[in-house]
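Final report, results section. Input specification for complex C-07:
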Amino acid sequence: MMIKPDAVRAGNIGNILQMVNAAGFRIVAMKLTHMTKERAGQFYAVHRERPFYDELCTFMSSGPIVAAILEKENAVEAFRQLIGATDPAKAEPGTVRHRYGTNVGENAVHGSDSDENAAIESAFHFSGMETYS
Ligand code: DAT
Ligand code: MG
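Structure output:
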């Protein structure tokens, strides 16, 4: 997962981590980091052809983020349930994006969309020595 620059700026790191813990996720790795625009571009390379790609990379490099690796049974689906729809206006009440997101671009958190991408994204942010099982 990532806590995006909007949520870090708004002082919502603690509130979001509280929701993550309450939902039963175990934190395996975590850091505060600031991606360059180039690095954000690598992270979101699958969206390279989308019209919002440049805006997304500019936003994701606009300030520090919190990156974390989370563990739970069926974690990818469970986390997407917790965060809600991409557009905070469409996210269910009680979800992270409904509470802390602003709009479809500035939506407070990132969650991996598959086990395969979760592994790729974990390796993007963390070395083996930074993860704790
Ligand atoms: P999600 O983050 O829910 O997996 P996604 O993978 O479709 O959503 O898109 C990745 C991010 O790109 C998303 O969190 C915010 C941004 N984004 C998506 N659709 C957008 C749009 N229509 N306008 C601006 N930014 C958008
Ligand atoms: Mg996605």
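The first strand starts at residue 2 and ends at 3. The CA atoms of residues 19 and 132 lie 21 Å apart. This concludes the modelling results for the funded period.
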